[in-house]
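Recall from the previous chapter that SMILES is a line notation for molecules. Here it describes zinc ion.
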Amino acid sequence: MSYTKAMEVSFCPDCSHAVPPHYLFCPQCGADLSHTPDFEGLLDQCLKPLEEMEWRNNRHRLALLLTRLEVLEEGLGLFLEEGRKDPRASCR
Ligand SMILES: [Zn+2]
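With both inputs in hand, we obtain:
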């Protein structure tokens, strides 16, 4: 892949912190960088937490939407009940 040459930083395999390529140890967590894994593996390790975060965010959003839907349904039920009780409140 050509874009590996354009990379001016590498990433710590332990904490995914950006590290200058000539560093032997991660300044963030102190991990040994003298035997860096291949770029594909590093990319996977960098993207994995992001993917997990996105998945968690989506699940959170879905739960939030379902909660709102429940509230809406409840509100709609109350509204329809009100309409039945008081004919003036009905749209029909
Ligand atoms: Zn690190």
